[in-house]
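#struct-help
A.M.: can someone run this one for me? Single chain, 109 residues.
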Amino acid sequence: MLSMFTAKAVSLTINDTIVIEQASVKQTVLASALAADIAFPHHCQVGSCGACRCQLVSGEVKQLTDSAYVLSAKAIAQGMILACQSVPKSAVNIKVNLRQRQLADEPQE
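D.P.: on it. Structure tokens below:
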């Protein structure tokens, strides 16, 4: 009975090659990627800049906020999500440009 209340782990596949086997269903896609030291593009981490947008190829996520004010209707129809506002509900496969340039006001490394 206790297992009903334990957070299960799911796999997170990024660009068909990077797999995080123990992504938590309590963490956002972005938080899981950053915890695995993946240089995932991001900026605000609250869903207002759109820097972490990625395409949900398969799986199901719970959106923590409405992304319609950041993503166009066309982008949403194409499966685009905000990684910082998406918590996996199942194994998830996403596509994202990991070489995306940083925003102008972010420090360059």
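A.M.: thanks! The first strand starts at residue 9 and ends at 14.
D.P.: also worth noting: The beta strands are 9-14, 18-24, 53-58, 61-63, 80-82, 86-88, 92-95.
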